[in-house]
Amino acid sequence: MMFAKILCVLYVNMSGYDTLYQDVDVVYYRNPLEFFSEYGSGSQNYDIIFQHDGSSQPRYAPYSSNSGFFYTRSNKKVQYLLTSLLYHGDLIRKTRTHQQVLNQLLLEHSSLFGLKVKTLDRHDYNQFPGGYHFNYDHSTMHQIISGELKPYIFHMFFTDGKETKVKFLKQFGEWYVHEECTEKLIGNANNLPASSQCCSATPLISCYYKDKPSAVPCNDSPSHDKNGEPFWKQ
Predict the structure, then answer these.
(1) pLDDT value at residue 185
(2) pLDDT digits (tens, 9 = 90+) for 90-121
(3) What are phi and psi of 13, to 5 degrees?
(4) Rounded to two decimals, what is the model's pTM?
């Protein structure tokens, strides 16, 4: 799976197409391609653009790039970067993450080969918020839930494990898959289209933690974090 993540971007890029890659824990509110194709955003000046990871750990320095949401221009510099990342598969396997290896290669390729790298501002919550804001910026999350703020996407990174991410998305009001379809292969479902059998037209909201953002008050639920304050103040 880790190698497929690299190859799917590399092959499309080598075919002459700019590429937007995303993990499956991303919610769309607006078309992000509009941002990356807009000259006023300044994004045209870069070869590769990443969402900020939210972490300031030294192993991700200096870019703190998130490998779960990024945009690439189709050019030789990007293709060389992705090929180098593929050749460092042993390190990816050892560290069990793309990000640590990728961030080191970004530093090398920007210095040696002139690769132009941009990481979107972590504090520019109007455009590309994510798990960092979910956990630490409840003011922004209230604005998204109320509809006051409409970013391009929301990315549930900065969260450990698939099970926790699913719980957070359900509570956030951004989960639309019926329970009976979450753990089965589509090929094992009935002959009905997956959209009619598995997908809900309205969000399937569940409460799990009172101290995490939720589409409805979850104050009767336990806290996720030690000494966590309720998201909805009474």
Answers:
(1) 55
(2) 888 888 778 889 999 999 999 999 999 999 98
(3) -65, -40
(4) 0.90
